[in-house]
Design a protein that fits this description.
Layout: H1 12-31, E1 40-43, E2 48-51, H2 52-68, E3 73-76, E4 90-98, H3 100-104, E5 111-118, E6 121-129, E7 134-139, E8 145-146, E9 149-150, E10 160-163, H4 166-169, H5 174-177, E11 180-182, H6 189-197, E12 203-206, H7 212-224, E13 227-231, E14 249-253, H8 257-265
Parallel strand pairs: 3-4, 10-11, 10-12
Antiparallel strand pairs: 1-2, 4-5, 5-6, 6-7, 7-8, 8-9, 12-14, 13-14
Helix pairs in contact: 1-2, 6-7
Length: about 270
């Protein structure tokens, strides 16, 4: 019989403290490899790099988190999927380094992403960007914070500052496309969502095949900052399913989201 977590609802503030400490330890370890020669291998038929820093950070996270919460499930980009997670109400969803290509290239836009997902929804979340000295956090019933200060999405103006791939911008319909100020490429998807949460940009379009570990922590932080990440149907995402990848997604402040989703739906026809 598989181990199960207690039926009582966990204390999300305690879980938040746990994942913050683990993320900082993992991120600071990864920072020790940053801008140094690191061993890199390729996975997913040569499409995705993984460095020794990713694996070292993953080891720290799994040891600390599962050591403290042995009844929780585990889903990490750098761990072979164990579908016993599907039997657990509560799961750690982890990306040890979101933005590995940036990390390998010496760019600072990478972060450790850790979420506690309960019954399919994020309940506690942290993003730690050690090269930038930034830490984002939230619980499902608390404020979103960056370095201890409350953050919030901004009210969009007529010009929308969007993080959108150049090839997608060209496919958007003309009236909407003309409103866009395209933000330079942000290599970490989780960090891109955090930029919406703290009001630096208005939104982003997420291409198909983003995974739970890219999204879960940033999703909660964005939601608690007054924004939303959702599918093109406008519904919130569900995590810890058997299939952990997603289709086209939109993320923005509440006011900017409807028009962004409407514009993005047309992309499915291309």
């Amino acid at each position: 019989m598989s181990e199960t977590i207690p039926s009582a609802t966990p204390n999300w503030d305690e879980d938040l403290a746990l994942i913050i400490a683990a993320a900082v330890a993992a991120g600071d370890t990864a920072l020790g490899y940053f801008r140094r020669a690191v061993d890199v291998r390729w996975k997913n038929e040569g499409r995705s790099p993984v460095s020794e820093a990713d694996l070292a950070a993953n080891d720290i996270l799994s040891t600390r988190l599962l050591g403290a919460r042995p009844g929780y499930g585990w889903l990490s980009e750098e761990t072979d999927d164990d579908e016993t997670r599907l039997t657990r109400d509560t799961v750690f969803v982890v990306d040890p380094i979101d933005g590995t290509r940036a990390f390998i290239g010496g760019k600072e836009l990478w972060c450790v992403s850790v979420a506690v997902v309960h019954q399919g929804l994020p309940a506690a979340a942290v993003l730690y960007a050690p090269a930038l000295e930034e830490l984002f956090q939230a619980t499902h019933d608390g404020e979103a914070c960056k370095n201890g200060e409350t953050i919030a999405v901004r009210d969009p103006g007529e010009r929308l500052h969007l993080a959108v791939a150049e090839d997608l911008v060209k496919k958007l319909h003309s009236p909407y496309r003309e409103r866009i100020e395209r933000v330079p490429h942000v290599p970490s998807l989780a960090y891109r969502l955090a930029m919406i949460a703290d009001g630096r940009i208005d939104g982003t379009i997420v291409k198909k095949n983003a995974h739970d570990w890219d999204l879960a922590a940033a999703d909660l932080i964005l939601a608690r900052a007054g924004g939303a990440l959702c599918g093109l149907d406008g519904l919130p995402l569900s995590y810890n399913r058997q299939i952990v990848s997603h289709g086209f997604l939109g993320a923005a402040s509440g006011q900017a989201l409807p028009s962004l989703l409407a514009a993005t739906r047309a992309l499915e026809d291309h």
